[in-house]
Amino acid sequence: MKDLLGRDEAVTVEEALRLLAEQDLRLPGTESVHIEKAYGRVLAQDIVSPENLPGFNRSSMDGYAVNAADTFSASDTMPVYLQIKGQVLMGEKACIQIQREEACRIPTGGMLPEGADAVVMFEHTNLIDGETVEIMKTVSPGENVIRFDEDVRAGETVLSTCHRLRPQDIGALAGLGIPVVSVYKKPVVAIVSTGDEVVSPDKPLSPGEVRDINSYNLAGMILACHAHPAKKGIIKDRFDELRAAVSEAVHTSDMVLITGGSSVGTSDYTAKVISGLGSPGVIFHGVAMKPGKPVIGGNINGVPVFGLPGHPAAITVSFETFIEPLIQRLSGKKTNNVLPSRRMLKALFSRNLSSPAGREEHIRVTIERRNGALRAVPVLGKSGLVSTLVRADGIVIIPMNKSGLYEGEEVEVRLFRD
Amino acid sequence: MKDLLGRDEAVTVEEALRLLAEQDLRLPGTESVHIEKAYGRVLAQDIVSPENLPGFNRSSMDGYAVNAADTFSASDTMPVYLQIKGQVLMGEKACIQIQREEACRIPTGGMLPEGADAVVMFEHTNLIDGETVEIMKTVSPGENVIRFDEDVRAGETVLSTCHRLRPQDIGALAGLGIPVVSVYKKPVVAIVSTGDEVVSPDKPLSPGEVRDINSYNLAGMILACHAHPAKKGIIKDRFDELRAAVSEAVHTSDMVLITGGSSVGTSDYTAKVISGLGSPGVIFHGVAMKPGKPVIGGNINGVPVFGLPGHPAAITVSFETFIEPLIQRLSGKKTNNVLPSRRMLKALFSRNLSSPAGREEHIRVTIERRNGALRAVPVLGKSGLVSTLVRADGIVIIPMNKSGLYEGEEVEVRLFRD
Lengths: 418, 418
Description:
The structure is a homodimer of 418-residue chains.
Chain A: H1 13-21, E1 30-34, E2 47-48, E3 58-59, E4 63-66, E5 80-87, E6 102-106, E7 118-121, E8 125-129, E9 132-135, E10 145-146, E11 157-159, H2 167-175, E12 180-184, E13 188-194, E14 198-199, E15 210-211, H3 214-224, E16 228-235, H4 239-252, E17 255-259, H5 264-277, E18 280-285, E19 289-290, E20 296-300, E21 303-307, H6 312-330, E22 344-349, E23 353-354, E24 360-370, E25 373-378, H7 386-391, E26 394-398, E27 404-405, E28 410-415
Parallel strand pairs in A: 5-6, 13-16, 13-17, 14-15, 17-21, 19-24, 22-25
Antiparallel strand pairs in A: 1-12, 2-11, 3-10, 4-6, 4-7, 5-9, 8-9, 18-20, 20-21, 22-28, 23-27, 24-25, 24-26, 26-28
Helix pairs in contact in A: 3-6, 4-5
């Protein structure tokens, strides 16, 4: 269905997300990287442990390696006496073998000698002379010992494909002796800026011109999503120039963002370019949300392409709503519906604010603490102002079926990345 | 006060944080960077706008620039007729000047011509012929116009020193024509690994040896804090070698982390090295927390130095508790006590778990959704096991004065970075 200007009618946010989710996409390939460089990368393989970790029975305390059965009657008042049979040195094979009623000095991390099955902490022992140690506490078999396969068993799947590698995961890979892993390539997201009035920030400005804000905002959000921004420069508002730039970007990138094009003419160019370059082309043109209503979603032969309105707040809201989940999908990461992907905060809304039904509204807010409670204060101002985004700490969403927010109503704030 | 082994008694977490907070630290300097490279960096200057943004009265709609007073009687049934006086071109100075009862075609983002003070959207107009347009709606002065200084006023402080630059902040700097900013240098955090049993992950392993897990875990957490990890290699457990390595690191870094050294002997070395290299030296040795009890905090002539126990979970907990806030401070960023610095999640604890009073306990948990509710399930296992960290989604803290958690009790989970 078309609106008065012959444009397709806006779809709901939910419908737009559903349309995007059902697209077939061309996924980036995989590459091998050293774990030093793999922080934040998404695994493209299961990690099956080639060996046991720690690989030997390891003391977790400074003390004496013993046969636990020898200590079963030990107490402060009735200690047990064991014969000292040398000591285990750190990082070396325990060559000693202990018999019943013998003990061997061992450091934290040391290898348990044969014959020992537990460690008594120094604190519970007394050295009588160089040959005898007094044991004042019972230990059970395995106490203060990390079993040879207790951390990881050989053959165990330690990490699964599609998992984003956190610091401790890289630590585990190092511990297992796996210095190189297969990961998905970072999605390359092209930014094509349009607008006859837009100039680069380090060029002088003539009357009627403005500097490029949006490609800088977008590049930062793309980086924060562990993807790679590729700026394609500022294109004049001409069909053939835009077509050439988008065509090139589709071939060299995994996603293309076209900024500007919020005026009717350019918006139509953008839609025509998207639909002319491949299939299925434009999948929605206009979304029932504010800001961000004029956003165009498309798919050129498996490469998602967005036409974004030129207003800074619309750029941020469109990015967080539509582009971030798609970058996530292109990154190879399994979606996790349990953990929030962003910092969220509950706060009380600071004033009454009405919102027309039939569209989802994204309100920029700052967070203040007043009388011990957190309050979300809307940053009012046009979506064309970058300063409203700079002043805001995050976003509160008023759903489509809600006619506004009351003063004191509890809201959930999605905080901007810091 | 000393414990049985002659070590200083553990301080509380609160006391340790207080001691760290009152240290005089040597702060990293500042540097100038291009905004393209300034994402996540901390400003070392106030940003005062050199000019007005957008710099001219700018249309926020496609339509006709008019004198609002001419439209005051306009309606669907009683339209007003204005004479069309050319059009404004995008990115160009509006050379036209309109008189009363004249209108001028203007695109979104176009410069308002002299004489005009509002824009009527196309949707509310009808083109009668090439010379006359029918206006069907009243606009008030300033409607659909962004005033020349509405986004930012010349002389206004847009961003303050000690603020971490987010994508939209970089966008605003670009918009104001400020391509280079002064930022604090990233703190360099040295990692000195100790342990006669520790070997690099790409070297073959002999019996009794283990691979270096901790420096990989630490490097990732340092990177996630926008700081720069500097690995200083694996040092043998000898006083003079450790002393030389720490001495070098103190001169080339802003913070030094010594890992390993959890056995009594090495722990004492570490404390002696820290106190021997400068003043005040060790400020606490042992903290009433689990895991992480043996952690040593120190300050060598303004450079914070930590001696960290070798257990992976203790490393993570010590880092999040003590090191992360200090990196924050060294980064120059103003502390924000209102916004959480990490993703937090409320969940119901899955089981009864007792915790001895007198120490703060950090429980690793996974988050599961069961019957619609989020549950935090503790990952049990020794703190020496890296696999418990790999399986966990985050940490639940049981405060010192609490004797445990009940099944079904609501807890706040600090999620690991993803």
